[in-house]
Amino acid sequence: MNAFIGKSEKRVDGRLKVTGRAQYAGDFHLPGQLYGVIVSSTAGLGEVTSIDSAAVESMPGIVAVISHVNAPKLAYKPHKAFIDPQVGERLHMFQDGGIRFYGQPVAVVVADTLDHAERGAQALSIRYDRKRPKVDLRDPSLVTLVPEAMGEEASKSRGDVRQAIAGVVTVDNEYDIARENHTPIETHATLASWSGDKLTLWTKSQFVVNEQAEIAAIFDIDPANVQVNSPFIGGAFGTSLRTWPHVTVAAIAAKMTGKPVKVTLSRKQTFYTTGHRPLTHQRVRLSATPEGRLTHVEHEGTAETSRYEQYAEALVSATQYMYSCPNLSTHYHLQPCDTSTPTYMRGPGEASGIFAIESAMDELAYKLGMDPIALRKANEPTVDEGSGLPFSSRSLVQCYEAGAKRFGWEKRSSEPASMKDGRLMVGWGMASGTYPVWFAPASARARITPAGAFEVEAAASDMGPGTYTSITQVAAETLGVPMNAVTFRLGQSDFPPTPPHGGSMTMASVGSGVRVACQGLQAELLKLATTNMSSPFAGAPVEELYWETGGLRRRGKRQQLGYRQLAALNPTSDPITVTATGSRGEEASKYSMHAFGAVFVEVAIDPDVYTMQVRRMVGAYGAGRIINPRLATSQCVGGMIGGMGMALMESTVLDRRDGRPINAHMADYLVPVNLDIGNIQVHFLDEEDVHVNSLGVKGLGEISLVGVAPAIANAIYHATGKRVRHLPIRIENLLHEA
Ligand code: MOS
Fold it and tell me: Which of 280, 304, 555, 630 suits 349 as a labelling partner, its CA being 20 to 30 A distant?
């Protein structure tokens, strides 16, 4: 019986958000705080030769100009979380004058007001010994490398890839995806405040316990002396997983001035040092029998990284398990260039790799004269052929069917450029999506107050999907109390540790932790009920007791011991508190665990000027148990819009002369707005997966973006007969391409 799990509960923090009382990092203020404005390098490579601080220091309100010239030498002790690139070293702040990429922080100007700090930052004259950065992946002098941390995993093959090509239908094409930046509405901000050796940070973070550990390593202080608070996040999508340079800069500035300092990145600066989806180049070769059975798949992908860190992601990994094919190889390479380190951006790896594979599958379907769904169904595997493991569950075929039905796919005419609406060309396209089920142990604390109220705490984050709400649902469900009897708090490093709020693992991981903490609390209360002499159940055999909505019952007895009564049995006045950590068994080594989805898209295109409109999208997902359909739908709508941005709009363009992102603002870095979006339908399969974790949750955030871009590209081909193999697809591409 589920009282709350699976129900569309309203956001518990909705009122706080719409009334403006939810406090985001930049909303925090401390008495006497100063403002720091980072000065970003206008050289793309080279060295700072001089900084004219004196001129700025005499300007109104300026408190300090901090750079490598006067900043303290910091410990930068080794620190790597699993979200950090495993090879390389993070950028060190103000430790030398070297410039590795355009926009690198070179100084921070600290003043009494934001206005004064901005004026000072603008006036700061910096001279550089400028070198020409290499930022173009096609630059022949750039060398690719095998990501060291991946070793043999970077290249995997099965069967005989070389011989399998002959005598069958093949496609062999290259695919390019532009660099993308996350650009959430809330820009990054950090307020840093020292009190002696203790540092408190109010910051935007998807991983507060790591930010705590990392800042402690940088400053060589006890992590217990670093407190990180991040109660609300206005969108992140991966950009707040790592601890970026501005956090350290705020802490340095606060240390040097002896005052709290707030550093907020400008919109432009969020394109410099807070990660991006790496630009990728891919090649896919497919061969199939005339009946559409894949005989050979080859997928090579190269992604950019920085010179100082090897950021690696799962670009080609999904190809290993997506379809059945005896002869298959995948290769992954990195190409270091003079940019900042890329990072996870929603659907990291899979979103890019699946664009290439699902475009190629569409091309193959046309070559074979097959329906795109029929081709995919003909290659549906029974096990994960990459690992040899059975799938914990795999509902991809059901996703095709559910999505196709809702979309009306059977009315599609198969010929390209054959569907019209008046003068508009109409195209229907589809693609598959997938994303792994991640899980990591998360801890949580549950307590009951003397008044019988529940407080649950975990260090987790909520960047928008509704973690506050969905975790409250799990706690209320476990305890058998109303939603409003539970207060769930997150976003503090002094709460029990949780894994990063990313990789779509929060619901599974934190949910499991909260569940065991609540169960542990019940066990404590049960012990009190049977041992406390004033309890009506004193001395009762444990097997006669059971939990029911609102409290504890004894078999065959009428009386219920409510939570408030149970709390009153506590001999001390302290609340009863239990901390526990969620885990999962050996299942992960026995099963291949992935969410699957299918995306269907209708585009309408003007035949004269090729303006494109995505009229409707249908996404069908097999993602295990859905804790809150309302929130999950909202999450998927957001992800699908992100996929649409990837397909048609998003592209960070670098000036080849100096590596400057020339469209580092919302006027020229395009993302879909309401007028672009059309109708979006989300459908969840009723998928039960007992292997993935105790909640049966697979995660949704990432997969909702995966598969959207190829579905749109495939729809555009269907509308026009023009195949565009790079993203974003723009009007000029359709005008020019054959
Ligand atoms: Mo998401 S890219 O795992 O924040």
Answer: 630
